[in-house]
Design a protein that fits this description.
This protein has about 130 residues and is mainly alpha-helical. Helices cover about 85% and strands about 0% of the residues. Helix 1 packs antiparallel against helix 2 and helix 1 runs parallel beside helix 4.
Length: about 130
């Protein structure tokens, strides 16, 4: 999940973030995409070194108990389940997110108006 492979929940999150950034500034979205790709390359390199290089003696007797297997299976099911059906999480928060965006847009417009009026005031004083 930390690599954000397609069909995982982290992929959905990063995709939505990149989509939002791209609406504002395409350069930053491309830069963020490059960073994500470089991070994935690094994670795969670390994964390869950990699991496919020569094993140390303390790893040779490594085994999982049933309780640990059940916990890992639950996590994996959640990662792929939410990656395949992200609306389970997105739909309940959609209304609140829309209200937050609307509020932020109103505040941005108000701030731009105040900045504009202060510039006009400064111009009239000079």
């Amino acid at each position: 999940a930390s690599v954000s492979l397609p069909l995982t929940v982290s992929f959905v999150g990063e995709f939505l973030i990149l989509l939002g950034i791209a609406k504002i500034n395409l350069f930053y979205a491309l830069l963020a995409g490059l960073v994500i790709i470089l991070g994935a390359i690094y994670m795969f390199a670390v994964f390869r070194k950990i699991f496919f290089m020569q094993k140390q003696s303390f790893i040779e007797n490594f085994s999982l108990r049933l309780r640990e297997i059940v916990a890992l299976v639950c996590i994996i099911v959640m990662i792929f389940g939410l990656g395949l059906m992200p609306n389970i999480l997105l739909k309940p928060i959609q209304k609140d997110v829309d209200n937050l965006i609307k509020t932020m847009n109103i505040r941005a417009v108000e701030q731009n108006t105040l900045d504009f009026l202060s510039k006009i005031g400064e111009a009239n004083v000079k």
